[in-house]
Design goal:
The chain is an alpha/beta fold. The chain has three domains: 3-120, 3-Layer(aba) Sandwich (Rossmann fold), CATH 3.40.50; 125-257, Response regulator (Rossmann fold), CATH 3.40.50; 265-414, Alpha-Beta Plaits (2-Layer Sandwich), CATH 3.30.70. The protein is built from 15 helices and 18 strands. The strands form four sheets. It has a six-stranded mixed beta sheet, with helices on both faces. Strands 2-1-3-4-5 form a five-stranded parallel beta sheet, with helices on both faces. A five-stranded parallel beta sheet has the order 7-6-8-9-10, sandwiched between helices. A hairpin with a 2-residue loop joins strand 15 (368-370) and strand 16. It is globular and about 80 Å long.
Length: 417
């Protein structure tokens, strides 16, 4: 469990910070009001904190000694203080604290909360540092690592492109523009041929103040440009802001491709993206890809007799059953109304039949319960082999077989003519 060490001697700030920590999901909090209490907390046999949020000026440690204590215990630390002193701030940042935040406005606490929220996510986010100079590459990587990102390094354009191909978790590249052989511009052009700006951001870097280079980088598809001599804080802020842009685009794309009620993929995703995704699927001997269309039986009667809220509960329950049938690479989508689709990747005919027949049996044994009422649901299913580049054909075949299932009794699977 994530544990936070909060060292704060002001009762007002303590309560406000604890509340904010709970809001971002950090519920196990050690609270200390001075250095001695913090030391006692760290010696408790309940596990070490993975994050410290500390004030600098404490009754028994007025000069930031608390940061040294956290450093001794190797705890990532955020300084949150009213003390504005450029020399002290610089000293603390040199010690490797994650950030130095002033309690100078109501927004400061929100900034800290947002930072903590991101720190929980950052270890899964890859950032690639491209620079032919190993010393500078290491220095930049060290700064980036302070915010717990997963950092990769490359010393050439070719190495960077190989690293991107091998590590899909990379969301952002920091690329030096001045390199022998293939420079940062060559990398950027090659990167943009392979990766959209909405999926992999690029920040150009340079030690030379040349406005033309900045403009060229931006024209070739970079999201930003920074001076290598900028402060670590500025670099980390630019990294965070560029990742926020990518996250927002991902969120919007996900919303556009998901059904709001069930959380499954929607018709748009199924028709626009499935064929592309399938190109990466292998087929082993005796297996195929399959497409199954499912339509809830008598769903209109459910809405008419039990109400639309009950109908929504039925749809969500059915969606959960379908999601439970899938393995890696399989796709489940709601096409609209009470019609759903499953795309099975690399399955034998028997596996598909067992999966879908099992669904029919599960539905019979699992009535939907909502607002004191319950109702058994059933579905008709049409299935077809799905060959690459023949999605429309499989969809039509499955639709015809679904119609047959409806016409010949409902609540059954038809997978052959």
């Amino acid at each position: 469990m994530q544990t936070t060490l909060l060292v704060e001697d002001a009762s007002f700030f303590e309560k406000a910070i604890v509340k904010k920590l709970h809001e971002v999901g950090r519920n196990q909090i050690m609270v200390a009001r001075n250095y001695a209490e913090a030391e006692s907390c760290l010696n408790l046999p309940i596990g070490e904190p993975d994050l410290a949020l500390v004030d600098l000026t404490l009754p028994d440690a007025p000069d930031g000694e608390i940061v040294d204590l956290c450093e001794k215990w190797k705890i990532p630390t955020i300084v949150f203080t009213s003390r504005f002193d450029a020399k002290t701030r610089s000293k603390m940042l040199e010690k490797g604290v994650i950030d130095y935040v002033l309690k100078d406005s109501p927004g400061s606490l929100n900034y800290v909360a947002d930072l903590i929220r991101k720190l929980a996510k950052n270890p899964s986010i890859g950032i690639l540092v491209l620079d032919d100079a190993a010393v500078e590459r290491d220095a930049i990587s060290k700064i980036i690592s302070k915010h717990l990102y997963k950092v990769y390094q490359a010393g050439s354009t070719d190495e960077a492109l190989e690293c991107l191909a091998a590590n899909p978790d990379i969301k952002l590249v920091l690329a030096d523009y001045f390199m022998p052989d293939k420079d940062g511009f060559a990398f950027l052009k090659a990167c943009r041929r392979l990766h959209d700006a909405e999926k992999v951001g690029v920040i150009g870097m340079s030690s030379f103040a040349n406005p033309d280079n900045r403009v060229r980088f931006l024209k070739y598809g970079a999201a930003d440009f920074v001076d290598k001599n900028c402060s670590p804080e500025e670099l980390l802020l630019r990294v965070s802001q560029n990742l926020d842009y990518i996250y927002r685009i991902e969120e919007l794309n996900n919303m556009a491709m998901r059904d709001a009620l069930t959380g499954l993929y929607n018709r748009r995703y199924l028709l626009d993206e499935t064929a592309k995704v399938m190109k990466g699927w292998a087929v082993t001997e005796g297996r195929n890809h399959w497409l199954a269309l499912l339509d809830l039986d008598s769903f209109k009667d459910i809405n008419d007799t039990l109400g639309h809220d009950f109908g929504d509960a039925v749809l969500k329950s059915f969606a959960r059953h379908l999601a439970g049938l899938t393995k890696e690479n399989d796709i489940v989508a709601r096409l609209g109304g009470d019609e759903f689709c499953i795309v099975y990747c690399n399955r034998s005919e028997d596996e598909v039949a067992q999966s879908l027949q099992g669904l029919l049996e599960t539905l019979q044994a699992s009535p939907v319960k909502f607002d004191g009422q319950e109702h058994n649901i059933q579905t008709s299913i049409g299935a077809s082999v799905l060959e690459e580049d023949k999605f429309d054909t499989a969809l039509k075949t499955a639709d015809l077989r679904l119609y047959t299932a409806k016409r010949t009794g409902r609540g059954q699977l038809v997978a052959a003519d």
